[in-house]
Each structure stands twice: as structure tokens, then as C-alpha cells.
Amino acid sequence: MPKIFCARPGCRYPFVGSNAESHRKEYHSTAHNFRYNGIKVKVLRRLDGKLPCPCSSELHARYSFKKLTALTRLPQHPPPEESPHADHDIAGRDPLADSSLSNSPLSVDGPPASRSTLDPSTLSNTPTSPPFTADKIAMEEFNAPEVTMEEVVEKGADGEYGVVSKGIRD
Question: Which stretches are tagged as biased composition: Basic and acidic residues (predicted)?
Fold first, then answer.
């Protein structure tokens, strides 16, 4: 008998986790901060339920923030075509393969996370790291105050998602 069962529609790993809170944080949290190339990076969970890697490689995207943390803490970040620390392989399912669930809005519970961006053109990229995508990642220098543009998205009475407010927060 599993320790927990996640009842969220579309959860890719409903039996993984020691308790409901650790499962929610690992697979359903909306954002996480990582260190990548000397920059504090805030990554927002996508609609398909995956957290994108700060290097923008699709093969590095993970459902589990713990697996993405392990990937970003490697002494040298792997090239885009390598994919260490893969998500859990449950019952032989390939976690990197796309399925009808991966593009479903039911893959995550609730509205998409608010989107925060900075201009990535001011950052330098090494030849081994692809350019940052500003629509997925917010960046700030070490010890810099966090100032972000925020769009709050909510589900309306008609069942559609829409932007309800915009603003700047510290």
C-alpha cells in the first residue's frame, strides 16, 4: 500500500512522496530558485507540470524540483543533449516522452504561476549554455534586491484563465 495518493487530476507521480506535503512541494509547487552560472534563477512551473532548466534544454526539464536541483548542482552543467538525474520512472513509463497528459491543462491544479521576467540580453552566455528564455525564467544578480513584473492569472466563472492584475513588487 502506498504511503500517499495524490488526487490532483493529471498528476504524473501520484504515489511518489513520503507524505502529502512533500509530494505537493516536489511535484506541484509553482516556482523554485536555483543558482546557475553565478546567477540566482527563479524557474516557474509550466502548464505541462514540468520545471524548465535554467539552460532552456527541454531534456533537462523535470517534474520533480529535487531532480532539477540535483542537475543544477553538478560541478559542470551538462550539455543540452545529456540528461542526468531523470524523473522517477514509474512502471516503465518514460518520463521524458510526451503524452496527451503532458499538454493537458489538467496536468497542474489551478492557474499558471505569475510570470516574472528580466531582459536576458544583458546577460552573457557561454558557448555551452543556450540563451535564457525570458518567458520562463527570472534572473537577478547575487545580493541584488528582487524586483519583478507580475501578472496574476485566475480562472474566471466561465472556466477560462485570464490576467486579473499587473504590477511591480519588491
Answer: 79-96
